[in-house]
UniProtKB/TrEMBL annotation:
Domain GOLD: 29-139
Main location per the UniProt record: membrane
TM region(s), chain numbering: 172-194
Similarity-based family: Belongs to the EMP24/GP25L family.
Membrane topology type: Single-pass type I membrane protein
Tagged with keyword Transcription: no
Keywords: Developmental protein, Membrane, Signal, Transmembrane, Transmembrane helix
Protein name: GOLD domain-containing protein
Length: 205
């Protein structure tokens, strides 16, 4: 029983919610980036302090510049999207102040969730008529599967990095051998050239 409880606590600690808060200066932009895998649901909740005459916009894009979510003149709300591929995704908040208007600093808070963090197990449990312990076990099952998938992806990336390192080492070795051959050839040619030159000048026999 104690072992099962410890496992539950350990898996619970692995589920984290990203929450960040910062001050957005007038006519500036703040961007946050995160690397996500393919087909990962992402939801976000933001809150921006209001300031008369000022507007704040946000836009979510991938590394190719595709817009996944966008909204102008925001104060409080949510956004959601699904990742199309393994990529780096960026969300930018920008402040806009009219000309000849003295802007003030606005406070922005952002909470993001992705993967199994986005699932509402209360709603799922009611729909499937699950008991509280069954609902918790379902959540832990999904969390375990997500951890296994993350480890599999990490192992695959480690293999790719190892292959890249081995390929780079081989290329460096071949380049070093080629450089040594070039240097030896150049040194031999230089010695022969100087020998012919000195013979032509009758400086040596």
């Amino acid at each position: 029983m104690e072992l099962w409880y410890s496992c539950v606590l350990f898996l619970t600690y692995l589920v984290t919610v990203n929450c960040i808060m910062w001050n957005l200066e007038p006519n500036t932009q703040k961007c946050l980036k995160e690397e996500l895998h393919q087909n990962v649901p992402v939801i976000g909740e933001f809150d921006v302090t209001e300031a008369a005459g000022q507007t704040v916009n946000y836009v979510v894009t991938d590394s190719k510049g595709h817009i996944l979510a966008k909204r102008q003149d925001i104060t409080k709300g949510k956004f959601s999207f699904n990742t199309e591929s393994f990529d780096t995704y960026e969300i930018c908040f920008s402040s806009h102040v009219p000309p000849n208007y003295r802007g003030i600093t606005q406070e922005v808070s952002l909470i993001t969730k992705h993967g199994i963090e986005t699932k509402n197990y209360d709603t799922y449990g009611e729909a499937a008529q699950l008991k509280p312990i069954e609902k918790e076990l379902k959540r832990l099952e999904d969390l375990s599967n997500a951890i296994v998938q993350d480890f599999a992806i990490m192992r695959k990336r480690e293999e790719e990095m190892r292959d890249t390192n081995e390929s780079t080492n081989s290329r460096v070795l071949y380049f070093s051998v080629f450089s040594m051959c070039c240097l030896l050839g150049l040194a031999t040619w230089q010695v022969l050239y100087l020998r012919r030159y000195f013979k032509a000048k009758k400086l040596i026999e």
